[in-house]
Amino acid sequence: MSDFLWGVSTSAFQIEGAFDVGGRGPSVWDGFTPVHDNQNASVACDHYHRWREDVALMAQLGVNAYRFSIAWPRIQPSGKGPVNAEGLDFYDRLVDALVDIGIAPVVTLYHWDTPLELEAEGGWLNRDIADRFADYTALVADRLADRVKLWIPVNEPAMVTLQGYAIGEHAPGKTLLFDALPTAHHLNLAHGRAVEVLRSHHAQAVGTANNHTPAWPVGPNDVAAAEAYGEIHNWLYADPMLSGRYPDAVAELLPIADGDLATIHQPLDFYGVNYYNPTRLKAPSEGNPLPFELVEIDEYERTGFGWPIVPAGLTEMITTLRDRHPDLPPVHVTESGCSFPEGLRDAERISYLDGHLKAAQAADVSGYFVWSLLDNFEWEAGYSQRFGLVEVDYETQVRTPRDSFHWYRKVISGE
Fold this sequence. Notes:
Blueprint: E1 5-9, H1 12-15, H2 47-61, E2 65-69, H3 72-75, H4 85-100, E3 104-110, H5 116-120, H6 128-144, E4 150-154, H7 157-166, H8 181-200, E5 209-211, E6 215-217, H9 223-243, H10 248-251, H11 260-264, E7 271-274, E8 279-282, E9 293-295, H12 312-324, E10 331-336, H13 347-362, E11 367-371, E12 390-392, E13 399-401, H14 403-413
Parallel strand pairs: 1-2, 1-11, 2-3, 3-4, 5-7, 6-8, 7-10, 10-11
Antiparallel strand pairs: 8-9, 12-13
């Protein structure tokens, strides 16, 4: 497994802080409410100032790949126009530092921090955002394409559509239900446009990172409900990227123009799976406007977030992907991790990661990225959930590796 990617993942908004530094513009998340205890990410892990310390932690850990995101508002404060050189310089230094110590940079171009001005113009409901995203991609690729090993245009488009626009749990907090579906098409279109731009800049490898969940019916009468959920969560994104077509049930609800599916359906060098848990569904009760209802999965142990711990679901999901898309490129698990209460003795996290890593290896993946290197700002949950291999004291910014950090180091080194 000499070519196996042993990695960790983070995202810009969740760790960088430094909202008012270096010419960064506001993002859709900056003032989003409600967030746990009215917390915000204005400081977070202060990675913008402490990135050298975090790179040193990765060197100590022994990973050979680091997946991080670039903050669109740092590159283009309004989401359009000329590059903010100071913002791009920050990532240029980070990439150089990683390459110098043999850690492959894995760049996500969009991890949910839409520039606020673009959201005011409709955000992902506005088709024009795909063109703006292509422009932004070109600015980043001009500087970094010669050194970045893997590129991921859009992280988890399903979560942007479902949580951000359909039910309002995430920024921008809209509750449009099925009227949110145009955002899915525009996210997919932005992915395709970005792949085209990255290819034109001779990018080394381009893929994606989609959130996937096995959709389990409660019983025989609930199969249609599970299939409907699976189409919206999984196949609304994977199918057009991998086969150039949408599931029939949703295609007629999307604003597809001539040539769009060809743009979305770009050859990919890898396919990223972000997996946390399965989802159980039943047929909707009377008055429910959706074709499914979610049901608790209560026969498994749970993480601090209350998510059921089901490593076999990861193997199941990758197997299902390969069955549905026989030409699936090499698979990386681009996010896998869990939250548990603070503390350095985190045997629960070790057990979780050990089970999911074995499940990933059983599915013959080519890379595994732990979410996350650091405790961080966990979106609407604020600082209440801790996912890090490294504990962060948010008052002092002191970083302390947990037992799981040392466990992962030994796994990587083969001890």
